[in-house]
């Protein structure tokens, strides 16, 4: 009789252990799935918020540049009585913004007959403190046919030009964007198109500051359980090309990937390979300009918190099973 009861006791122990194991597996599976969804949602909310903040920071800087440029253009408008007074007006305001490489006033052909057909004074920095004035208008440089000049003349409104590369073999060669505004005389005629040239050096520095600020964020380091948050911020044009990036990191988006989102200045996100690394790219428009800020987030460590939690759950399961086995052994003797 005693021999018959031993297999039954062992069977009961095994049944209890398997039942508890199944309960543990179901419980931990639900817990891991819940944790994964929560971490995924938290990650999404954080980087969307970061993208919005980065967009606002850049927009604020751009608006400040616009305001400074308009002050220069207003000064030109007040001194249209002679070409000399125009040049003096440009020179008097050159130091308004250190991020502006130069200011110019491209006049309508023969606006000042004594200056000839092409008159475009350009006051630009040659180093951090000094500047010079050059007359850049010529038959070789027929600025009135340039897209920015035609657009300003047709729209009668201010705007930011598309990024471009300017090269004349001098120190002012480089990648630029220009804030452009038409200026009218007292008779309401178009006198000139003024512009403020800005390189993208300031934008790369701004992106670097944003990355450092968010990488040291206490919430990011506290809740993501990551050794090192792996992301960076760039600015992309409406065609998806990268126009500013920190530390040489870049990403480009195609119309096939994002449709017309960039052209229509919409927010969005997309999963894709960036330099061979699975990543998520969040993008959002920058209000005053036709650019978007994009946050590129590596997904290589996205599962790291789940792996750590899974290890903890496995350890607890083993400890729990050991405890159940000891209890069964004592109770079912």
Short note summarizing the structure:
Helices cover 45% and strands 23% of the residues. The protein is α+β, with helices and mostly antiparallel strands and 333 residues long.
Distance between the termini: 14 Å
Question: Helicity, in percent?
Answer: 40-55%
Overall mean pLDDT stands at 80
**What amount of the residues lies in strands?**
15-25%
What are the SSEs and their pairings?
Elements: H1 2-78, H2 83-92, E1 100-107, E2 121-125, E3 131-135, H3 147-155, E4 159-160, E5 164-166, E6 174-184, E7 190-199, H4 201-215, H5 218-223, E8 231-236, E9 242-244, H6 255-258, E10 268-274, E11 277-286, E12 291-298, H7 304-331
Antiparallel strand pairs: 1-2, 1-7, 2-3, 4-6, 5-6, 6-7, 8-9, 8-12, 10-11, 11-12
Descriptive key words:
7 helices; 23% strand; 5-stranded antiparallel beta sheet; alpha+beta; 7-stranded antiparallel beta sheet; 333 residues
Description:
Strands 1, 2, 3, 4, 5, 6 and 7 form a seven-stranded antiparallel sheet that branches. This protein has a five-stranded antiparallel sheet with strand order 9-8-12-11-10, with helices on one face. It has 333 residues and is of the alpha+beta class. It is built from seven helices and twelve strands. Helix 1 (2-78) packs antiparallel against helix 7. The protein has helices spanning 2-78, 83-92, 147-155, 201-215, 218-223, 255-258, 304-331, and strands spanning 100-107, 121-125, 131-135, 159-160, 164-166, 174-184, 190-199, 231-236, 242-244, 268-274, 277-286, 291-298.
């Amino acid at each position: 009789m005693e021999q018959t009861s031993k297999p039954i006791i062992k069977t009961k122990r095994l049944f209890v252990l398997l039942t508890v194991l199944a309960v543990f597996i179901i419980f931990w599976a639900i817990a891991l799935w819940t944790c994964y969804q929560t971490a995924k949602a938290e990650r999404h909310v954080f980087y969307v918020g970061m993208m919005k903040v980065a967009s606002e920071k850049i927009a604020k800087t751009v608006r400040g540049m616009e305001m400074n440029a308009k002050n220069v253009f207003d000064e030109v408008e007040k001194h249209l009585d002679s070409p000399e007074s125009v040049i003096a007006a440009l020179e008097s305001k050159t130091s308004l913004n250190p991020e502006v490489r130069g200011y110019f006033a491209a006049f309508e052909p023969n606006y000042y007959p004594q200056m000839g057909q092409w008159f475009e004074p350009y006051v630009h920095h040659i180093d951090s403190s000094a500047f010079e004035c050059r007359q850049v208008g010529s038959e070789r440089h027929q600025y009135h046919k340039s897209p920015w000049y035609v657009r300003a003349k047709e729209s009668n409104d201010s705007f930011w030009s598309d990024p471009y590369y300017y090269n004349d073999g001098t120190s002012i060669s480089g990648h630029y964007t220009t804030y452009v505004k038409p200026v009218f005389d007292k008779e309401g005629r178009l006198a000139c198109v003024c512009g403020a040239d800005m390189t993208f050096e300031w934008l790369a520095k701004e992106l670097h500051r944003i990355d450092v600020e968010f990488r040291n964020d206490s919430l990011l380091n506290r809740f993501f359980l990551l050794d090192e948050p792996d992301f960076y911020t760039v600015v992309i044009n409406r065609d998806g090309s990268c126009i500013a990036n920190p530390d040489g990191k870049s990403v480009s988006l195609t119309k096939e990937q994002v449709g017309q989102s960039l052209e229509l200045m919409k927010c969005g996100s997309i999963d894709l390979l960036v330099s061979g690394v699975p990543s998520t790219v969040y993008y959002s428009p920058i209000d005053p300009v036709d650019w978007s800020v994009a946050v590129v987030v590596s997904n290589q460590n996205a599962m790291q918190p789940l792996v750590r939690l899974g290890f903890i759950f496995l350890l607890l399961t083993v400890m729990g099973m050991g405890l159940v086995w000891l209890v069964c052994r004592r109770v079912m003797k």
